Amino acid sequence: MAFLTRRRDTRPPMENLELLTTAADEIELSMIRGLLDEYGIALYVRDRDGSSYLRVVAGYTVFGTDVYVDRDDLPRAKELIAAYLSSDAEIADEDVREAFAAADAAEAENASGSRVKLWYVILAIVLICLAAFIVGRL
User: Which residue from 29, 71, 74 is spatially nearest to 47, judged by alpha carbons?
Assistant: First the structure.
């Protein structure tokens, strides 16, 4: 009768948690989660304004996601996020240029490879049609 037992709530008590920040989207939430996990800071996320239904229906929420941490970890977590955001702003232009250059190079390489493959496919189709035509004449 295990299915009749009530599932234990494994969420941490909210009185020990403090709001760290609100992530605007999944990308920002993933960056925050990765940063805090890297430094061993546990976090608890909660959709804003009861918008969990949007995450279920649409796969994301437009209201943002609140990120909570333990009260004792709050100063360190704020420091880590501030340091990350300030260092990110300084190198963002260089990173963007490098990323675009790498993407352009990869796209050019893929485009030329795709063209060659396309020509091979066209050649194979022509040869198959030619062979079928010759066999049909015999």
Answer: 29
- Structural domain containing residue 116: 12-137
pLDDT in tens, 91-111: 455 655 666 667 667 766 666
Find all residues with CB under 8 Å of 32, minimum gap 6, and list them.
20, 21, 23, 43, 67, 81
DSSP 1: -
Q: CA of 115: how far to CAs of 94, 108, 109, 110, 124, in Å?
A: 32, 11, 10, 9, 14
- Confidence band of 88 (pLDDT split at 50, 70, 90): low
| Per-residue pLDDT at 43 exceeds 70 | yes
CB atoms within 10 A of CB 61: 22
Number of H helices, E strands in the chain: 3, 3
66 in a domain, yes or no? yes
- Say what the pLDDT of residue 61 is: 66
Domain count along the chain: 1
> Is 53 contained in some domain?
yes
User: pTM for the whole thing?
Assistant: 0.52
